[in-house]
Write a structure and sequence with these properties.
By secondary structure, the protein is of the alpha+beta class. Strand 21 and strand 22 form a beta hairpin. Strands 12, 13, 14, 15, 16, 19, 20, 23, 24 and 25 form a ten-stranded antiparallel beta sheet that branches. The chain contains ten helices and 25 strands. Helix content is 24%, strand content 37%. The protein folds into three domains: 94 residues, Pleckstrin-homology domain (PH domain)/Phosphotyrosine-binding domain (PTB) (PH-domain like), CATH 2.30.29.30; 134 residues, Probable inorganic polyphosphate/atp-NAD kinase, domain 1 (Rossmann fold, 3-Layer(aba) Sandwich), CATH 3.40.50; 229 residues, Tumour Suppressor Smad4. Bound molecules: adenosine-5'-triphosphate (ATP). The site of adenosine-5'-triphosphate has 21 residues, from helix 4.
Length: 484
């Protein structure tokens, strides 16, 4: 294909004279003395301005990639004659108008996350960049309490916004995801409490500006926790489709999670950390040691649907296939005992879809953003077509610490221990057959002991001795192309 390129004219850039041409989505600046060229892609331009002064000038605000995946907004000025400047501004502006960038954002700021600097960071780093880049009609809500995004999104006029931004940690982001998904299912009359329901994917992306304690999700997406980088990625508007999982207890949705879902020891650890929230981010380095020292195993029976052997390309549409229900002896017992619904379309041919495993374990863990081994390290994988679920069998404290340290340091081989069993699955159910329960008046068994699930950094208390986790692939667009 022949490239369509037009010469705009000569400009002064600092102490150089450059010939500027435009085409194929980029500006090319050629130093007329050295003949060196520099390309500036329009998709990296934040704003173009024509400045009138003693000399006409085109001021370009654009994004520059620094080392360690960090992005910065920088500015350059090109001085030239009036006609060339006008022509250059028009060409760039026309291209910018074609880009699908968010112009109206709904922003939630958690003033309590991390070091409690969310509001200050918003006004000093986020708002000026949004203003510079022409993001208009921004509604900013500084939350007063937990749960506000969900409350507001339940009735908010979605036609007013192109995207949502969470200024906070992983927990705050998760609240926005839960609020948005709940709203969408409600609008589509989908029963979220039914674990058989396929959920409707969001068309509205969510962005995260990391001001929390862990900030794992932002780090997975951008490979840095740098705030300016996160804001610039939201402004540029690129997004990727990410997975979520649902957590049900019987016919009750507990939450959606987009990062991780961990039952047992890690759930308990998260609860212990919440109790020490006043310590700020340092709670995560002290409190888990105490939880480790008091770890105790629990009997589990797990049923799971294995990853489909044939991999189809990930779809940007939303759904997992509808699965049949189990018919194994184990499953029948499981279902007779409890709360999960039996759908009408039970297909006997698919009775082997569900597999089972059991044992006395410290935890049943899943990362929604799965981890791929690359050399010595782990690379996050968004939109994977299955979850990696692992159970941690009984093991010595020192071996367990070694395994968790590997995971925390994101080192390859964190599942290569003989006390770890892993499966690839799209859906699983965990039952606690030997824990003490009390039957309520409608025949439901409720736990007498406290068990927790760490869902995206929030400790969710289990009420009943069974829960179900299900993958919903490609459900949530998140701002930022995933860095490899
Ligand atoms: N004004 C508020 N007061 C108290 N809690 C709030 C407020 N606004 C939001 N929250 C709650 O704080 C919880 C934790 O917030 P967030 O995830 O932003 O910070 P963090 O826990 O420090 O960071 P991370 O999740 O990355 O470890 C959220 O789940 C949210 O429900």
């Amino acid at each position: 294909m022949v490239e369509k390129r037009s010469m705009i004219g000569e400009f002064n850039l600092a102490d150089k004279t450059v010939a500027v041409s435009f085409g194929d989505g980029k500006l090319t600046l050629r130093d007329i003395v050295t003949d060196n060229t520099y390309d500036l892609h329009i998709k990296e331009v934040l704003k173009v301005e024509h400045m009138e002064g003693q000399r006409s000038c085109v001021r370009l605000h654009h994004v520059v990639k620094h080392s360690n995946h960090v992005l910065r907004a920088e500015m350059c000025e090109l001085y030239g004659d009036l006609t060339s400047c006008q022509c250059l501004v028009t060409e760039i502006q026309e291209e910018l108008n074609l880009l699908n960038r968010p112009k109206r954002l709904l922003i939630f700021v958690n003033p309590k996350s991390g070091h409690k600097k969310g509001v200050k960071i918003y006004s000093s780093k986020v708002a000026p960049l949004l203003k510079l880049s022409g993001v208009e009609h921004t509604k900013v809500i500084v939350t007063q309490k937990a749960g506000e995004p969900k409350e507001l999104l339940a009735t908010y006029d979605m036609s007013l916004i192109h995207g949502i931004v969470s200024v906070g940690g992983d927990g705050m982001f998760s609240e926005c995801v839960n609020g948005l998904l709940a709203r969408l299912q409600n609008d589509s009359q989908i029963d979220m409490n039914d674990p058989e329901s396929d959920i409707v994917a969001s068309k509205i992306p969510i962005g995260i500006v990391p001001t929390g304690s862990g900030n794992y999700l932002a780090n997975y997406i951008h490979r840095t926790k740098d705030i300016e980088t996160a804001v610039l990625k939201i402004i540029l508007g690129d997004h990727h489709m990410s997975n979520v999982v649902s957590l049900h207890e019987g016919r009750q949705l507990k939450c959606y999670a987009s990062l991780l879902m961990e039952f047992g020891l890690i759930g308990r650890m998260m609860k212990d950390c919440e109790n020490f929230r006043w310590m700020g981010p340092s709670r995560y380095s002290v409190v888990p040691l105490k939880s480790m020292m008091t770890r105790s195993p629990v009997d589990v029976e797990i049923e799971y649907i294995p990853e489909e052997p044939k991999r189809s390309p990930p779809s940007t549409a939303k759904f997992l296939r509808q699965v049949s229900l189990p018919a194994s002896k184990f499953s029948e017992k499981f279902f007779r005992q409890r709360l999960f619904s039996m759908p009408g379309d039970y297909d006997a041919d698919k009775k082997n879809d569900w597999k089972k495993l059991d044992g006395r374990v410290y935890g049943v863990d899943t990362y929604v953003v799965t981890q791929k081994e690359k050399g010595e390290t782990l690379i996050p994988r968004f939109g994977d077509n299955a979850l990696t679920m692992w159970v941690t069998d009984k093991c010595s404290l020192s071996d367990h610490v070694e395994q968790l340290t590997k995971l925390q340091k994101r080192q390859s081989g964190f599942l290569d221990f003989d006390f770890i069993r892993k499966v690839r699955t799209t859906r699983y159910r965990v039952s606690l057959p030997s824990v003490s329960t009390t039957m309520n008046e409608v025949g439901e068994r409720h736990l007498n002991k406290k068990f927790y699930i760490n869902a995206d950094g929030e400790a969710i208390k289990l009420e009943t001795p069974q829960f179900e986790v299900r993958l919903h692939q490609g459900t949530m667009p998140i701002y930022g192309t995933v860095e490899g």
